[in-house]
User: Fold this.
Amino acid sequence: MEREVFEKWLKNNTDLKIGIINSYGSAINTISKFGKLNNLFSEDIYQIKNLNKLNEKINLLEGSDLYIEKNQESNRRWSSALEHYKQYISSEEETEGKDKDKSRTWFVGAAINRQDQTQKFIEEGIWQNGYSNKYIDLVNSIKIGDLIAIKSSYTRKYDLPFDNEGDSISVMGIKAIGKVVDNLKDGRNLKVDWKEIDPIREWYFFTNRSTVWQLNREEGWREEALIDFTFKGKEQYYNKFLDYYYEEDYQLEENEQYGWISFYEVFANKLLEYKNKREELLEIINQIFNDIGMKNPMVKKSGDGKDEILDDICPFTVIGLFNKGITDKNRIKIMEKFSEYLEIEEIIPDSFEGIPVLNNMKSWFFGDKKHRKDGDIDNLWKLFELALKLADDYTETNKELFIDIYDKVIQQHGVQWNITFALYWIRPWDYLTLDNNTRTGLVEKLKIKIPLNSTKKTCTALDYLSLIELLKMKFEEDDYPVHSFPELSYKAWSGEIKTEGKVSEDIELPRDREYEPYTKEDFLKEVFMDEEKYMTIKSLLERKKNLILQGAPGVGKTFIAKRLVSSLMGIRDETRVKILQFHQSYSYEDFIMGYRPNGSGFELKEGPFYEFCKLAAENIDEEYFFIIDEINRGNMSKIFGELMMLIESDKRGEEISLIYSDEPFYIPKNLYIIGMMNTADRSLAIIDYALRRRFSFVDLEPAFEKEIFKNHLLSQGADLNLIDKIVKKMKKLNQEIEKDLSLGKGFRVGHSYFCDYVSSENWYEEIIRYEIAPLIEEYWFDDEEKGQTLVEELLR
Assistant:
């Protein structure tokens, strides 16, 4: 039924063809099954009728590499279907909101009519009955009688503000007022648990909130906004508020969206007390999950199959226990138990819209023992402590300490964008979350470019703090679409960032690491190759994903490989390029993974290819290049082992278990392999067929006769006669090599010997005698006379 309604909406509100409509309807069902099967969430997407909750599920999906792969395989049909479903839910919410306008208008009218009765009620002091002096003094001091006018249509009474069960609803109301006043004096937004004080919610909303918010937004914060307020005579604020209400689409039935913040901040403070009591903290966590009957995520199977509690934990992973893809009911259960064991008195939130959550499969901020270095967890605690300190005291000294530890932490296993989620959890008013939705909102809506200067293509500490400082300045602008980090996160998740006429141009932060641009044109200027061959190489690499550049000594294989990948990336970014050299004894254990001595025994160590694949998999939107020099010197089947199959272009992304760790592993689609092979190496046997089948091969030839080679030497100051001499003599030598049946084209001498001209009388002679002559002598080792004759000819 729900699918039929969605497809009907698509038919009436889009120009999609009926086949696409049916395809999208089916895709939503498929995605629901995928989410359940992979433990991302437990409900059908068709049952979700709230845009915030839908965005939460989409964020979990987009954090899954497997989802990304499946989406690409379907030509992005999954993401397109979800985008249309978001539009459908948004339109349904808008329609529902309009239906509520009449009831809202009626209630405001009723509130105004009761103004005189309310004032009399307050003046007579009836409301003081049974309340502590603390709250009486508070209310008297700020004179906001309308805020505690509980004699609304909810209570149906005039004499005392009690409900039918005899509970003092006004007490809850006054407590709420106290919290609001405290928060406003801090310059912060409202933090009220509306469900707890539901009977006075609408009255409070239409009296105080409209005036305070309007004074705050229109005139800047003034404490006087709370003084001598009555609804009578303030109709202009009410009218302004209604305009603002409709613009921002606030919903009365929703919990106050920032009500969770107080608990999270207090929880962080309590958690810091366990920095040096981590064993006790782990025991508490285990007891909590035993109490609520849930499996403890901090328990793993040991080698003998028994349950084993982790021996250490970081604070961010602790908070992540109730900030990942589980039901709100279970989140609340976990928080309630933490409150009990850690003695937290703050109200536990029951609504979590706009709070970034972790992927269930990646909910730790540290690796297991195989992927964890000494000090990783200590670093996370240190960052946690310094983040709280910096939030409370934003000084240059604290900034420097924060920057130092942050940049260490983002290099650790298990840490990427999620570290910004965690900083936002502990101090939402001070730190920016950079989850997928917020990054999208920053780039697409607020036109702020996010610098990606870390090796994992995330923000460095300087990047991150610069973003925070920029946004805090923007928050001060009256017409800016958002005015705090919680508001930004909430609206990014709900899709409510409104930017019409408010954001005009892109904002780019200064980069703490500049990457030099490098284009195809730059490549063609530096490399002695024409555009047609360049485009052929580019096409082969994109299609096959594996390429070998082969040629004789001196044709510039390494030079070309480095500049080729820079031109494909568009910048010179060495963090996305790895270069190593094979040799006859190079092994799988060197390349992928193997046991190495550590002084007290042996430990499993990851090799460069394993680490580079993991890095590429964490940054799927960027291209990564693994360059292997002398690739034909190694035994490819031996070095790649079980991964030999996975380097094929159509096998990228497929998982296989590694022989040493038995863990699932795959080679990501954004990783390209470029090998270099010296065709003049007599010591090598015929190239392995396995290598031939999985790579495209491109021959690189000497460029002595190319005009660009001549111009290159001229630009370095070489004499034209010398250039002509080099071209003629090397051309003749290469002809001799090519026609020799024991040698051939693959043994010709390359141009790179002569690419670095030095103004010296002996420059040419030294190159011939000490670089090219030994090569010629090796070529004609069985005919020394001919070799000597050729060298003498070059020196004439």
